[in-house]
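Sample pair:
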Amino acid sequence: MRITTANAQDTAVDSLQRRQQEMQRAQEQMTSGKRVVRASDDPTAAARAERALATSARALADQRGVEASRNAMEQAEGALGDATEAMQQVRELLVAAGNGAYTDSERANLAERIRGLRSQLLSIANRGDGAGGYLFGSQGSAQPPFVDGVGGVSYRGSDGQAMVRSAVLLPMTQEGEATWLGARSGNGVFVTTAAAGNGAGAWIDAGSVTDPSALTGADYRIDFQVAGGNTTYTVLMNGAPTAQANVPYVAGQAIQFDGMAVTVQGTPAQGDQFDVTPATADLSLFDTLDRVVAELKLPNRSSAQVAQTVASGLRDVDAAFGSLQMQRALAGESLNRIDAVESRIADVKLGADTERAHAEDLDMVQALSDFQAKQTGYEAALSTYSLVQKMSLFKYL
């Protein structure tokens, strides 16, 4: 085969340029730290890296949702903590109001302190989240969700919770109506109430359940009769007399019927009535405090009437208190769930980043070794080409 001088030179120059390009590409890879700088370097690896990058971007978006939910739930849990502290103070003041040595003015002072705590609780219920919303705004509200009007505090939000989409749905608000206006009334099963026209000598406790299987869910009434110095009572169910009719009354002794037990204290008057009705989930914390404040301000009340106010007030305050504690526990549960979701998102992002690194990152030790080999080869090729260029027939003539 005949090799011309021009062909030999072209081949040598092409080889030098190719080696120079390879060395330049290796240098570019070491500078960027990436094995795949452009898709043409390795289309398969570039596609893997792109998919991993998309997964990592989704994980970052999910993480922002988790952070927003965590911030809201931490604020809600803190607000409920403040509310439970205020309710504990209300309870202590209400217990103090039962002191028989207190005068009407002293009870009125306690009522004013309870009113102040009530205002504090309303402020907590309308606490903002720092982002234009409200912690207890349910599915969102542009205005404070609780309105204090003539008839008491009303709720103008919508049921449910505002949610943020992350890896899963996470809460951004608490259910306001259920938290502040939706406690179980009475002892949670039934409610005892003294009739408005009763005398001033007797009061009834909150009662208790003795046999859950015997509960009927009916309305009951206990009627008292006084004749010849003897006091008896009759239990009516849905307005009809039961087997317990004209039973001798003993102060402090439990009256039991259909799985329930209630205790009437003091001296009932002729015609006194006490109702026992099923509990409902609509007890308003604010209505409870308003009622307690109003009754504690009434002058010239008997010890039995004060005892009834304290007993009923403590019963309802404890019910509202329990509702707040339950909602606080739900906020804590949400925070635990947020932690779990955040951990899963972090694992997904780590996996995506690892996959991307495997697809496009450069092994720096190997790359440095390859670069040195390419550099040595290029230098050798330059030296060889230089020697060959010096060889010419005219030099030997």
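DSSP finds eight helices and 14 strands in the chain.
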